[in-house]
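Re: your question from the hallway

Yes, I did run it. Sequences:
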Amino acid sequence: MAPILDDRSLEFISRSPEQTRRLGARLGQLLQGGEVICLEGSLGAGKTVIAQGIGRGWGAVGRLVSPSFVLVREHRRPTGHQRLLHADFYRLEQAQEVWGLGLQEWMEDPAVVVLIEWPERAPEVLPQERLWIRLEFAEETRRRLLFTAEGASYLALLRAFRRAAFGV
Amino acid sequence: MTEEIRMLGIETSCDETAAAVVADGHRILSNVVASQVDLHARYGGVFPEMASRAHIEAILSVIQKAMQEAHVGWDDLDAVAVTYGPGLVGSLLVGVNTAKGLALGRRLPLVPVNHLEAHIYAHWLEVAAEGAAPPNLAFPLLALIVSGGHTELILMRGHGDYIYLGGTLDDAAGEAFDKVGRLLGLPYPGGPAIEKAARQGNPAAFRLPRAWLESTYDFSFSGLKTAVVRLVQQHGGPLRGRTVADVAASFQEAVVDVLATKTAAAAAERGATAILLCGGVSANQALRTTVRERAGVPVYYPPPILCTDNAAMIAACGHFRFLSGERAGWDLDVEPGLRLV
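Structure:
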């Protein structure tokens, strides 16, 4: 079920990590480069799981694993210069530390998709326009996923995603 | 008598600024580590900007100290080995640029070293410690590399010859330790803190899941982490001493159970002559004991100082890369996502 809250948000209950991954893959297939996708949720909510799906759909070589320790992991496709950057602010405590990651350059690069886990730890470095995905524990293996688009291009992305994933 | 080869090793991939001088790939002449753990412990994490700055401030004096303690001057060195990945980009750059400058200025060959491979070479260093590997290890060897950023099972068929058997599909073992440590309100870094708490706890107190991922040598610790999150949530309110110890013990046992079982099975299946435990998490006593109980071959682990990041292992690994003719150009770049295989 995918109740449509309004034009700029979408809610979904996932029953398993694999379902979350498949949903992420649908989104990943639509990414052109230049997007910033924020993945908010507490420990164990499934941020890395949906990132793995997005990476799979985007066409990343190999599997995405948690970037918590190394802060950023760079992924590529078998060919081409496009990149997917998987960042994680979990171990950061001060927003200014994000500058040290060189993330700003990545976020402004149209050939790069940027995924950010724990984005709320450094809200001031995030662009105004972005796709925000909030993941919450529902019960046991279920997770509630809330997608919110900020900005015209992300509204279009969310609409395309809704069509691709739910046919509406 | 042939002249020995003396290698200066430099390591700055993450939290430690380290330099060491090693002779012939096994004799430690000096091993200096300036840790930022104290700095990060205050905040429970790492600071890339601060880490780079701290590396810059420490690197030259650390190198100087390593050379003084080894009683060597620049003319006594044969080459400079440096970590160029994997790690944090800003931190790696400090080591690589320093090594380039020194090698160029002193006309010494520059040898690029993979940090993961170097963790395996910690076993080639001579130390008088319980669990230390003997000289002349026979291949093939099975290496389990477990740290904050890595969990990998590697078959080593010879120097520089590796087969990747499996690795984590989500969280690294050390990362799971850190996250659960934080969840339980234990100090940073989580690994030693959980081990300490676990000693007072009952490992059978909570039934926590193990991801066996049958017929693979892959690992997954994300489900275990989530189970601990649920446990803490259901408890409602902060956990107290006895419960913290029980959760820590149950969690540690779940991690160790999977790591030890798969490592022992891989060693048997691939005909390894010994198991090498490598990386920061291999300092965990429960892991060492359990792998030994389950393995049919000798199990070796370096002393704690050589399990965690250090430059002696960089110099040891650099020695063998040097012998095989490997040299870096002055255009050597860092590779934050470098893999071993």
